[in-house]
Amino acid sequence: MAAKATALAPTITVSEAVVEDWTRVLRRLRDELGETAFRSWFQEIHVERVENAEGVISLPTRFLRNWVATHYADKLLAAWRAENPAVRRLTIVVEPHPTAPPRPAPSSAAAADAQLATPTPVSEIGDDRAQLSAPLDPRFTFANFVVGKPNELANAAARRVAEAFSAPAHSVPFNPLFLYGGVGLGKTHLMHAIAWHVRTHAPRRKVIYLSAEKFMYQFIRALRFRSTMDFKEQFRSVDLLMIDDVQFISGKDSTQEEFFHTFNALVDQNRQIVISADKSPSDLEGLEERMRSRLGWGLVADLHPTTYELRLGILHAKAEASGAKVPDKVLEFLAHKITSNVRELEGALNRITAHTQLVGRDITLESAHELLHDLLRANERHVTIDEIQKKVAEHFNIKMAEMTSARRARIVARPRQVAMYLAKQLTPRSLPEIGRKFGGRDHTTVMHAVKKIEELTAADRALGEDVELLRRMLLS
Ligand code: ADP
Ligand code: MG
Question: Hey, is 441 helix, strand or coil?
Fold first, then answer.
């Protein structure tokens, strides 16, 4: 049943039975995965042969091969075995198949998009880079960014990059600028602000801003239509490249590879790069080591969770900009209660100003309460000591039982101290109460743990980041 392939005939001939089985396998997959996924990944798949219980199929690129192997190998094999139980293993090879559909002409870009079933990114920046850059939000400028302790470093760094880059003798102060922080703390805002600044002060400079997801999309698309040269060309001719939310690139091998090369090429030519992510380079999972260290080369600036003062400042600024009259008491109430992120804070304020305009009456504390009860409830999330112990144990890969055990080996004692510290920070429990929850320890032990972790996080960056990460996970 094996296919015949000779050195003289690179076009492998597959036996009819194999092809018939394969057609049915594909039909099964299409039913199981749905049309969109099927077309995205299996359009160019070919059966090569079945030999010694091994089914061999091919895809035209390494990227597609890896993707299908990671995401669909099990399903493929199961479907194949359902048609032909003799197939017990699956191998996917890279083979640009002679019968693969040719690359569509450039004019059929629309059709190409339909094929990928992903919306085309629209552009505003740059002419010939039209399809690459994402639109900028007109509200996201430096002038509209309220600066406070938690974001002052990130803001200063972003400004510095924007100004240095727009100056006539342009320079690249730190490359890359890596901004990171939790959801809704202003990463995208700062990146757009850089783009706006450059656009106003140095309109001839080529700027590309896009999300890591779009970057991947563009890359996959280039692979599918074998236009990777154009892709490289487009990215490598920009002056300032900004990629938002790179955590989405991690784990996707060949996109990472391409990103790495683009990155290096740009840095070598002294072009500016700005990156954002939800974690620091050292905490990004699924990232290759060389990529991780490259990303940390320039300036890494953290956006910390907001403080009450910053939230109030933002609310004042936004209320003023909207022109609606919102009493200070209500703003203070919001700043106090809605602590998750700035996006929610804005949402709350918008609801209030809309209400004010609709009913034509100033909002009171009572009506604010009523209007926002769902948001307020969500922000009233209380963390329990159990949750803290569980998350910390998971994070440091120790047993939950070690949280209450008497073992004093550092490998378990340190995580236990971190958990005590977080319990003190995140719950209203007293030191004796916390001590009891950790296997009946004395309150002085808890106090010692809190002090110890405070000292350690100040001195040891890795531990500091661990604790910060845990804090964020617990509060989100
Ligand atoms: P991220 O990209 O970090 O998830 P965004 O940049 O999208 O967050 O910010 C979420 C929203 O909060 C945006 O509307 C943004 O304008 C606003 N925002 C965040 N931080 C500030 C700030 N310091 N001053 C003014 N607006 C802010
Ligand atoms: Mg963002």
Answer: coil
pLDDT tens for each residue of the chain, 476 residues long: 444 433 333 334 577 788 888 888 888 888 887 776 677 678 778 888 888 888 999 887 776 777 788 778 888 888 888 888 888 888 888 877 654 333 333 333 333 333 333 322 333 333 333 457 888 899 999 999 999 999 999 999 999 999 998 888 778 888 999 999 988 999 999 999 999 999 999 988 999 999 888 888 777 777 777 777 777 788 888 999 999 998 877 666 777 777 788 888 888 888 999 999 998 998 887 777 888 888 888 999 999 989 999 999 999 999 998 888 889 999 999 998 888 789 889 999 998 988 888 887 778 888 888 888 877 876 666 789 999 999 999 999 999 999 999 999 999 999 999 999 999 888 878 888 899 999 999 999 999 999 999 899 888 888 988 898 888 788 76
Atom of ligand 1 nearest to the CA of 189: 6
Query: How many CB atoms are closer than 10 A to CB 202?
Result: 17
Residue owning the nearest CA to atom 14 of ligand 1:
343
Ligand nearest to the CA of 184: 1
Taking CA atoms only, the protein residue closest to ligand 1 atom 10 is 184
- Ligand 1 atom with minimal separation from the 146 CA: 24
Pocket mutation for ligand 1, best pick of 141, 147, 189 (most atoms within 8 Å of C-beta):
189
Nearest atom within ligand 1 for CA of residue 317: 25
Closest C-alpha to ligand 1, atom 5: 186
Q: Long-range CB contacts (< 8 A, 24+ apart) of 332-337?
A: 333/365, 333/368, 334/368, 334/372, 335/308, 335/311, 336/308, 337/372, 337/376, 337/379, 337/380
Neighbouring residues of 105: CB distance < 8 A, sequence distance ≥ 6: none
| Cis status of the peptide bond prior to 106, with omega within 30 of 0 | no
In this prediction the pTM is 0.59
Separation of 57 CA from ligand 2 center, angstroms?
39
In this structure, are strands 299-303 and 177-181 parallel, antiparallel, or unpaired? parallel
CA of 140 to the centre of ligand 1 (A): 8
157 token code pair: 């760094």
Residues with CB under 6 A from ligand 1: 140, 144-146, 151, 181, 183-189, 314, 342-343, 346
